[in-house]
Amino acid sequence: MAAKAERAGADGQLVVTPYYNKPSQDGVLAHFRAVADAADLPLMIYDIPGRTGIPIATETILRLAEHPRIMSLKDAKNDITATTEVLTKTELEIYSGDDQNVLAWMAMGAACVVSVTSHVASRPSGA
Fold first, then answer.
1. How far apart are CA 81 and CA 52, in angstroms?
2. Does 20 qualify as catalytic in the annotation?
3. Domains defined along the chain, listed by start
4. Which of 35, 81, 94, 127 meets the CB 3.0–4.6 Å disulfide criterion with 123?
5. Is residue 94 classed as helix, strand or coil in its secondary structure?
6. Catalytic residue among 22, 74, 89, 95, which?
């Protein structure tokens, strides 16, 4: 899918953990590395355990941050301690994945938000 997205002109990838089968953290690490290696596109990790069934452990994120195409994290885990550790130990751009956490995450040094609300409430293009 990553290679197809690249051929279709995608600028990057937003990738979640494999859902339903709940892999180990080694499996999560292998998954993200395989997707990152499949295309020459920047990759944003999407940590949303409420939807996928498993959180990405902080140690796994720290290891993933070493990959040259893994550039950012959309954090919807709501774990301020884990987010702070990732912010201080990596060069990943961190984005809030929950609208209610935007201010707190940005105060800690996050880049911004990948927002659901803004897609509903945004102005039409050209307006």
1. 21
2. no
3. 2-110 (3.20.20.70)
4. 127
5. strand
6. 74
Confidence of residue 23 (pLDDT cuts 50, 70, 90): very high
pLDDT digits (tens, 9 = 90+) for 85-100: 999 999 999 999 988 8
95 is catalytic: no
What per-residue confidence (pLDDT) applies to 5?
A: 96
Task: Report residue 76 as tokens.
Answer: 């919807």
**Tens of pLDDT along 49-106?**
999 999 999 999 999 999 999 999 999 998 989 999 999 999 999 999 988 888 988 9
CB distance 110 to 96 below 8 Å: yes
Q: Which amino acid is at 66?
A: E
Q: Which is the catalytic residue, given 46, 77, 89, 95?
A: 46
pTM, whole model, 2 decimals?
Answer: 0.89
